Amino acid sequence: MNDNKKIYFYITSILAFFIPIPGRFVFAFYALILFNLQILLLTLIFHGVDKLKIGGLKEPVLIFSIIFLTILYKQFLYIVCPVVAITLGFCIYLPSISTFTIMFFFGKRVNSLTKHLINNMGTCAYNSLTCLVLFLLRDALGYGTLTLPGWKRIIYVHLPFLSGTSHAGAFLATIPGALVLFSVLLAGYIFVKQRFDIIARKGAEQ
Length: 206
Hints:
This protein has 206 residues and is mainly α. The chain is built from eight helices and two strands, in the order ααααααββαα.
Protein backbone atom coordinates (compact mmCIF):
# COMPACT_ATOMS: atom_id res chain seq x y z
CA MET A 1 0.00 0.00 0.00
CA ASN A 2 1.57 3.28 -1.12
CA ASP A 3 1.54 6.48 0.92
CA ASN A 4 -1.51 7.97 -0.83
CA LYS A 5 -3.56 4.84 -0.26
CA LYS A 6 -2.48 4.76 3.37
CA ILE A 7 -3.82 8.29 3.84
CA TYR A 8 -7.09 7.32 2.14
CA PHE A 9 -7.29 4.24 4.38
CA TYR A 10 -6.93 6.31 7.55
CA ILE A 11 -9.35 9.00 6.40
CA THR A 12 -12.01 6.47 5.40
CA SER A 13 -11.78 4.33 8.51
CA ILE A 14 -11.37 7.14 11.05
CA LEU A 15 -14.28 9.16 9.63
CA ALA A 16 -16.43 6.02 9.84
CA PHE A 17 -15.86 6.18 13.61
CA PHE A 18 -15.83 9.94 14.16
CA ILE A 19 -19.12 10.79 12.49
CA PRO A 20 -21.57 8.22 13.95
CA ILE A 21 -19.97 7.22 17.27
CA PRO A 22 -20.34 9.43 20.39
CA GLY A 23 -17.13 11.11 21.53
CA ARG A 24 -16.41 8.78 24.42
CA PHE A 25 -13.34 6.57 24.63
CA VAL A 26 -15.29 3.48 25.70
CA PHE A 27 -17.54 3.53 22.62
CA ALA A 28 -14.54 3.73 20.31
CA PHE A 29 -12.87 0.92 22.25
CA TYR A 30 -15.71 -1.53 21.64
CA ALA A 31 -16.22 -0.39 18.04
CA LEU A 32 -12.53 -0.84 17.24
CA ILE A 33 -12.56 -4.39 18.58
CA LEU A 34 -15.27 -5.13 16.04
CA PHE A 35 -13.35 -3.33 13.31
CA ASN A 36 -10.25 -5.48 13.88
CA LEU A 37 -12.33 -8.67 14.03
CA GLN A 38 -13.93 -7.71 10.72
CA ILE A 39 -10.58 -7.20 9.00
CA LEU A 40 -9.33 -10.50 10.42
CA LEU A 41 -12.43 -12.36 9.22
CA LEU A 42 -12.40 -10.78 5.76
CA THR A 43 -8.73 -11.62 5.27
CA LEU A 44 -9.36 -15.26 6.19
CA ILE A 45 -12.40 -15.45 3.91
CA PHE A 46 -10.50 -13.92 1.00
CA HIS A 47 -8.05 -16.80 1.11
CA GLY A 48 -10.68 -19.39 2.01
CA VAL A 49 -12.78 -18.53 -1.03
CA ASP A 50 -9.73 -18.88 -3.26
CA LYS A 51 -8.86 -22.25 -1.77
CA LEU A 52 -12.40 -23.51 -2.36
CA LYS A 53 -12.32 -22.08 -5.91
CA ILE A 54 -15.63 -20.23 -5.55
CA GLY A 55 -14.35 -16.80 -6.54
CA GLY A 56 -17.71 -15.92 -8.13
CA LEU A 57 -19.31 -16.01 -4.68
CA LYS A 58 -16.63 -13.93 -3.01
CA GLU A 59 -18.61 -10.69 -2.69
CA PRO A 60 -21.85 -12.26 -1.35
CA VAL A 61 -19.87 -14.38 1.11
CA LEU A 62 -17.92 -11.35 2.35
CA ILE A 63 -21.05 -9.23 2.76
CA PHE A 64 -22.93 -11.99 4.60
CA SER A 65 -19.94 -12.73 6.84
CA ILE A 66 -19.37 -9.13 7.89
CA ILE A 67 -23.09 -8.59 8.62
CA PHE A 68 -23.27 -11.84 10.59
CA LEU A 69 -20.19 -10.93 12.63
CA THR A 70 -21.58 -7.47 13.39
CA ILE A 71 -24.93 -8.87 14.56
CA LEU A 72 -23.20 -11.50 16.67
CA TYR A 73 -20.88 -8.90 18.20
CA LYS A 74 -23.79 -6.62 19.08
CA GLN A 75 -25.50 -9.48 20.92
CA PHE A 76 -22.23 -10.02 22.77
CA LEU A 77 -22.24 -6.34 23.73
CA TYR A 78 -25.75 -6.66 25.18
CA ILE A 79 -24.31 -9.23 27.58
CA VAL A 80 -21.03 -7.47 28.41
CA CYS A 81 -22.23 -3.85 28.53
CA PRO A 82 -25.87 -3.20 27.55
CA VAL A 83 -25.55 0.59 27.78
CA VAL A 84 -22.84 0.56 25.11
CA ALA A 85 -24.91 -1.67 22.81
CA ILE A 86 -27.97 0.54 23.23
CA THR A 87 -26.04 3.80 22.80
CA LEU A 88 -24.21 2.65 19.68
CA GLY A 89 -27.44 1.34 18.19
CA PHE A 90 -27.35 1.33 14.39
CA CYS A 91 -24.02 3.18 14.44
CA ILE A 92 -22.19 -0.08 15.03
CA TYR A 93 -23.04 -1.18 11.48
CA LEU A 94 -21.51 1.88 9.79
CA PRO A 95 -17.81 0.94 10.32
CA SER A 96 -18.70 -2.33 8.56
CA ILE A 97 -19.22 -0.35 5.36
CA SER A 98 -15.80 1.22 5.85
CA THR A 99 -14.23 -2.21 6.40
CA PHE A 100 -15.78 -3.63 3.25
CA THR A 101 -14.73 -0.60 1.18
CA ILE A 102 -11.17 -0.75 2.47
CA MET A 103 -10.75 -4.43 1.65
CA PHE A 104 -12.01 -3.99 -1.91
CA PHE A 105 -10.46 -0.71 -2.97
CA PHE A 106 -7.25 -0.66 -0.95
CA GLY A 107 -6.52 -4.32 -0.33
CA LYS A 108 -3.38 -5.61 -2.00
CA ARG A 109 -3.35 -9.14 -3.39
CA VAL A 110 -1.03 -11.30 -1.27
CA ASN A 111 -0.74 -15.04 -1.90
CA SER A 112 0.58 -15.88 1.56
CA LEU A 113 -2.15 -15.93 4.20
CA THR A 114 0.34 -15.29 7.00
CA LYS A 115 1.88 -12.31 5.24
CA HIS A 116 -1.56 -10.94 4.35
CA LEU A 117 -2.73 -11.23 7.95
CA ILE A 118 0.40 -9.52 9.26
CA ASN A 119 0.04 -6.66 6.78
CA ASN A 120 -3.68 -6.12 7.37
CA MET A 121 -3.66 -6.51 11.14
CA GLY A 122 -0.55 -4.34 11.46
CA THR A 123 -2.25 -1.56 9.53
CA CYS A 124 -5.42 -1.99 11.61
CA ALA A 125 -3.43 -1.84 14.84
CA TYR A 126 -1.84 1.46 13.81
CA ASN A 127 -5.20 2.85 12.73
CA SER A 128 -6.90 1.65 15.92
CA LEU A 129 -4.24 3.26 18.09
CA THR A 130 -4.74 6.56 16.24
CA CYS A 131 -8.51 6.38 16.76
CA LEU A 132 -8.12 5.57 20.45
CA VAL A 133 -5.82 8.55 20.99
CA LEU A 134 -8.25 10.87 19.19
CA PHE A 135 -11.23 9.61 21.18
CA LEU A 136 -9.20 9.88 24.36
CA LEU A 137 -8.62 13.56 23.57
CA ARG A 138 -12.31 14.07 22.78
CA ASP A 139 -13.34 12.38 26.03
CA ALA A 140 -10.85 14.24 28.20
CA LEU A 141 -11.12 17.71 26.64
CA GLY A 142 -14.80 17.55 25.81
CA TYR A 143 -16.18 15.99 28.98
CA GLY A 144 -13.32 16.12 31.48
CA THR A 145 -13.51 12.35 31.96
CA LEU A 146 -12.00 9.09 30.81
CA THR A 147 -14.58 6.37 30.16
CA LEU A 148 -13.39 2.77 30.50
CA PRO A 149 -15.11 -0.57 29.82
CA GLY A 150 -16.57 -2.36 32.83
CA TRP A 151 -18.73 -5.43 33.33
CA LYS A 152 -22.27 -4.37 32.41
CA ARG A 153 -21.41 -0.73 32.98
CA ILE A 154 -19.19 2.17 31.95
CA ILE A 155 -16.48 3.29 34.35
CA TYR A 156 -16.18 7.09 34.55
CA VAL A 157 -12.83 8.47 35.71
CA HIS A 158 -13.18 12.20 36.37
CA LEU A 159 -10.04 14.16 35.54
CA PRO A 160 -9.57 16.88 38.19
CA PHE A 161 -7.43 19.09 35.97
CA LEU A 162 -10.14 19.04 33.28
CA SER A 163 -13.22 19.05 35.48
CA GLY A 164 -14.33 22.47 34.26
CA THR A 165 -14.09 22.00 30.52
CA SER A 166 -14.33 25.15 28.44
CA HIS A 167 -16.68 25.68 25.53
CA ALA A 168 -13.71 25.22 23.19
CA GLY A 169 -12.95 21.87 24.80
CA ALA A 170 -16.60 20.77 24.73
CA PHE A 171 -16.64 21.57 21.01
CA LEU A 172 -14.21 18.69 20.43
CA ALA A 173 -16.81 16.25 21.73
CA THR A 174 -19.15 17.18 18.89
CA ILE A 175 -18.96 15.84 15.34
CA PRO A 176 -17.80 19.19 13.84
CA GLY A 177 -15.20 19.48 16.60
CA ALA A 178 -13.97 15.95 15.95
CA LEU A 179 -13.64 16.72 12.24
CA VAL A 180 -11.69 19.89 13.00
CA LEU A 181 -9.38 17.98 15.38
CA PHE A 182 -8.84 15.24 12.82
CA SER A 183 -8.21 17.76 10.02
CA VAL A 184 -5.62 19.65 12.07
CA LEU A 185 -3.79 16.46 13.05
CA LEU A 186 -3.90 15.11 9.49
CA ALA A 187 -2.57 18.41 8.11
CA GLY A 188 0.19 18.34 10.74
CA TYR A 189 1.10 14.77 9.80
CA ILE A 190 1.26 15.61 6.08
CA PHE A 191 3.35 18.75 6.77
CA VAL A 192 5.86 16.89 8.96
CA LYS A 193 6.09 14.02 6.48
CA GLN A 194 6.76 16.40 3.61
CA ARG A 195 9.53 18.09 5.63
CA PHE A 196 11.17 14.74 6.31
CA ASP A 197 10.84 13.75 2.63
CA ILE A 198 12.58 16.99 1.60
CA ILE A 199 15.39 16.40 4.09
CA ALA A 200 15.77 12.82 2.88
CA ARG A 201 15.96 13.92 -0.77
CA LYS A 202 18.53 16.60 0.03
CA GLY A 203 20.60 14.04 1.91
CA ALA A 204 20.46 11.65 -1.04
CA GLU A 205 21.56 14.37 -3.47
CA GLN A 206 24.63 15.31 -1.42
